[in-house]
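Researcher: I'd like a candidate sequence for this fold, 127 residues long. If you have to choose between options at a position, lean toward the conservative one.
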């Protein structure tokens, strides 16, 4: 059974850091581009970051560039999102997703391009 599980969310003060993890089971994650999306209450799900199969290509939405870093450890079937200098507007449920493809440097930016999704982890940035 294909499964993605996010962890690492929580409550943090503005300026703080969190590290989200996305662990895959039931498939080999290094055949997939992995993306992070987030959805705040009353808003649509939005792209946050993505990393290619090889890990050699990454991208971020403008609002998190310079603050968030995506990485992957294919030996552990895991992808990470290091989030620093967190702001209240980063508050959302964060989802990881997997896009099956055969290109080492492919990224995907829209939800419909992804085949599998995790259940989400809540990130709340508040004082």
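Model: Candidate sequence:
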């Amino acid at each position: 059974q294909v499964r993605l599980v996010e962890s690492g969310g929580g409550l943090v003060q503005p300026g703080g850091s969190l590290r989200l993890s996305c662990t895959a089971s039931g498939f080999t994650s290094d055949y997939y581009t992995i993306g992070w999306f987030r959805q705040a209450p009353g808003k649509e799900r939005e792209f946050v970051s993505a990393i290619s199969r090889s890990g050699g290509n990454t991208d971020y939405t403008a609002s998190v560039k310079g603050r968030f870093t995506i990485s992957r450890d294919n030996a552990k079937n895991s992808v990470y999102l290091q989030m620093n200098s967190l702001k209240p507007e980063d508050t959302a449920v964060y989802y990881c997703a997997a896009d099956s493809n055969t290109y080492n440097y492919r990224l995907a930016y829209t939800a419909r391009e992804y085949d599998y999704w995790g259940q989400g982890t809540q990130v709340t940035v508040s004082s």
